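Weekly modeling sync, notes
Attendees: S.R. (lead), two postdocs, one rotation student

Agenda item 3: backlog of single-chain predictions. S.R. asked that every request posted to the team notebook include the full sequence so nobody has to chase files. The rotation student volunteered to paste the first one in as an example of the format we agreed on. Action items at the bottom.

Example entry:
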Amino acid sequence: MVILTILATAAFDIILCIVEIPKMRKEKLIRELWTFSILLTFGTVLAVMKSLDMYIANPSDWIAWVYSPISGFMKSLLM
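Predicted structure, as returned to the notebook:
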């Protein structure tokens, strides 16, 4: 089942590239092409990691970690 998920993701990515990249090259949208490529690669890596049941960190955990010292300071001010 894992192989099917990875193959489906790869097939979707290939079809998406076949459709979108020629349009962007024709219109000379170089920045958009780079952004598209980076985001597609990032999304593909995350999809493969998810299909392999690997741990993917939750971004809200990082935000909570960054703001935790400020939270403690604010609690001490308000109490």
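Discussion: group reviewed the output briefly. Residues 2-78 form one domain.
Action items: rotation student to repeat for the remaining queue; S.R. to check formatting next week.
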